[in-house]
Structures are given as C-alpha cells and as structure tokens.
Amino acid sequence: MPQSPPFGIPSNTPQPGRLGAAPQHRQGSPADKAITIVLVCLAPPVCVGTSFWGVFSVMATASCGSDCGGAVDMAIPLMIFSPWVVWLIATVWAIVRLVRKQPAVWVMLLGLGMATVIYVAANIMLFTGVG
Q: What is the pTM for the complete model shown?
C-alpha cells in the first residue's frame, strides 16, 4: 500500500527520493561566470570611448549652426548616454542571474548587441541630419 504524503502536501508534489523529484539547484558554469565578469569589467572603457565620440560629434554640427534639426538634437545625447544606460541595465540583470546561479553571459552579449544597434542608429541620425 503506497504511503500517503504528510499533511498539507498535495499527493502530486514530488517528494525527495521519489521518482520525479524536483531537481536540485544547478550551479552556473565557471566559464560563464568568468566571461560575464570580464564583459562587465570591459564594458565601461568602451562606454567611455563611445561617449567621447558622441561629445566630439558635436563638432560635426558646426556646418549647420544652431538649427540642425530634431534628429541631430536627439542623436547626440543618445550617443553619449545610451551605452551607459544599456550597460547598467545589462549589468544589473547579469548580476541577478549570477546570484541565482543561472547563465548570464548571454545577457551581457544581448546588451552589447543592443548598445551597438542604438549607437549606430544614433550615428546615422546625426550624420544624415548634418548632411
């Protein structure tokens, strides 16, 4: 005769030692942790470089004066601040995943891809607006 579960536990809940028991907490791979930490640490210098490019891109607007248009007015702050915002969001999300022992390197790679797309779009907006 099968043994009934303890009071308060539904009969379909997996019990330790029984077939179909809940899996144990998995450990994230050491390579995933190492690559994620390296990407988190290497991203700020890249963000500094992209922000400087955004700041110095203001000089490209010298030919059109103060009325370059809304696209240029939006592109420069986007070039300066978007890498930092994306890096901050991706880093917080990756750290949360590392603490939960889940793979996190894809979060940083996704952030890198997003930052690149936003940054290239801002450059295109700037240089097509300037003409």
A: 0.72
Helix (H) or strand (E) holding 94: helix 70-99
The 10 Å Cβ neighbour count of residue 19 is 6
Give the span between the Cα atoms of 35 and 39, in whole angstroms: 6
Contact 32, 104 (CB under 8 A): yes
Q: How far apart are CA 45 and CA 111, in angstroms?
A: 15
Residue spans of the domains in the chain: they are 30-130
DSSP per-residue codes, 9-27: S-TTS--TTSTTPPPPPPP
Q: Per-residue confidence of the chain (131 residues) as pLDDT tens digits?
A: 566 666 666 666 555 555 555 555 567 788 999 999 999 999 999 999 999 998 888 887 777 777 777 888 888 899 999 999 999 999 999 999 999 999 999 999 999 999 999 999 999 998 888 77
Contacts of 41 (CB under 8 A, 6+ apart): none
Quick check: 111 and 86 in contact, CB under 8 A? Answer: yes
